[in-house]
Design brief:
Strand content of chain A: under 5%
Oligomer: homotrimer
Shape of chain A: globular
Structural class of chain A: mainly alpha
Distance between the termini of chain A: 52 Å
Number of strands of chain A: 0
Number of helices of chain A: 8
Order of helices and strands of chain A: HHHHHHHH
Chain lengths: 206, 206, 206
Amino acid sequence: MNTAIYGFDLLGVMVFAISGALAAAERRLDILGFILFGTITGIGGGTARDLLLNTDVVFWVGDPAYLWVCIGASLATWFLARRFQTLATVLLWADAMGLALFSVLGTMKALAWHAPMIVAIGMGMMTASFGSLLRDSLLGRPAVLLQPDIYVTAALLGACSYGLLQADPRTAAIAMPVAMTAAFTLRAAAILLDLRLPKYGTGPAE
Amino acid sequence: MNTAIYGFDLLGVMVFAISGALAAAERRLDILGFILFGTITGIGGGTARDLLLNTDVVFWVGDPAYLWVCIGASLATWFLARRFQTLATVLLWADAMGLALFSVLGTMKALAWHAPMIVAIGMGMMTASFGSLLRDSLLGRPAVLLQPDIYVTAALLGACSYGLLQADPRTAAIAMPVAMTAAFTLRAAAILLDLRLPKYGTGPAE
Amino acid sequence: MNTAIYGFDLLGVMVFAISGALAAAERRLDILGFILFGTITGIGGGTARDLLLNTDVVFWVGDPAYLWVCIGASLATWFLARRFQTLATVLLWADAMGLALFSVLGTMKALAWHAPMIVAIGMGMMTASFGSLLRDSLLGRPAVLLQPDIYVTAALLGACSYGLLQADPRTAAIAMPVAMTAAFTLRAAAILLDLRLPKYGTGPAE
């Protein structure tokens, strides 16, 4: 089981690193820019989580495999990106996959550090969105927090559903895959169907 | 006394959360945006302080009451904000109140962790301004550090006056209320009278 | 030797603080703005490094000398800056000097905390560039990560060459000065000769 978690964690770092490197491609940065944005996006969310949880060692400081995955994914993107017709679409789906993985894994790690449930859910949301936030902020793209499409909401769904399912012994075994699927499905629906929450001040009382 | 400090701390988080949610209202974000900006603004300053002091537990990670206050204040703002004629004015005064509370409470916590006085004053200034800085930066509003009105100066006054007064046994008992009042009064005067420090390059030597 | 490292560390903080205060001068901020930007730029990189390494005490929290150096350098810049014809040039070279010092000192501190080599090199790059990144981001200047000139590359050279040279007993004694000189020389060449890495999508395969 721990091997599966480690594998998902590396996979999440990889897909976020690809999304960061693709954002660097859109801005036509140099190869070091690809690596920097790939790495910042890949490890940004988990770094914020570990700093706030005050873990003994930030995950990538203790285990260099994470940095190598970021560097490798960024270099692969550098050489392969021009084969993709639409970088923006690949970026969007890599990001959605990372979102689903990290919303659950972030909640899981916070619970393992005995954070209260509301804190653990917040940590899951932050782990899933902070890397993208850093990427977009540094690139001058509009921050994901300001966009009306359902992004953080999907992370919230992943974090909450994992929190609920793991607390019940009957559902604990399936909590991880179900919650990841739920978060990804909601984000995918939001992308494909252009779903969004109602904005402030657009209700009938206005 | 500790109960009073805890109460002021929750109050500071609440007024900053309201200012964050009001900034979300100005940008017409959805309800989750209100909660996110309320929470980030409410706990941002204290989080930076606790990370830099390397406290055992970041305050809101150990005590979920802070997150509930942020969520509650953000939701209340969502439902009540349209009753206010001028969101910007309410935001300004909520922000001023948080500034006064956190400049003193931040200095107090740093001194309790045995930080040197100059460090504790810096921590007080940072606790008071970092939440607003995050809020404005993420919303694309002009950063408070760049504006000529007296904002950080008021936090400096609160931090310094608390530092001085608490060091003398004769004034230690009144240090907290006096310093909070001083910071709020200076910030209020700056808002009402449009006070500002002289800019670089505008002196007679130019 | 430790005295030399401490001296270089203070020197690096000082030149970055000057670059921060000069950036405040370009934006015509007030005297507190000079101190804030001087301090943020001076200690920003080392602060990020210490938080990620989870050192017991962030360097400037335990030793107030660093804050005094930032405040002194910022005040000196306030009074002396108008004597310089071209603030931008002084800023550029102060920044280059800080870059060279911190890329090596950051790697050194990470290795002393037993970080793996790839992590230590990343820490050196971050220590050298994070203060400038904060300065430019808060001032609304274009982020150094997006600019095509060789900035982070010079930090990478300093960090890598120090990492290699200190690992071999025959070169360990000269690792620090050689690596600092290498980083500074590459950055100076980049400034003077307008060197840059090839951008994505400009190769012959395009």
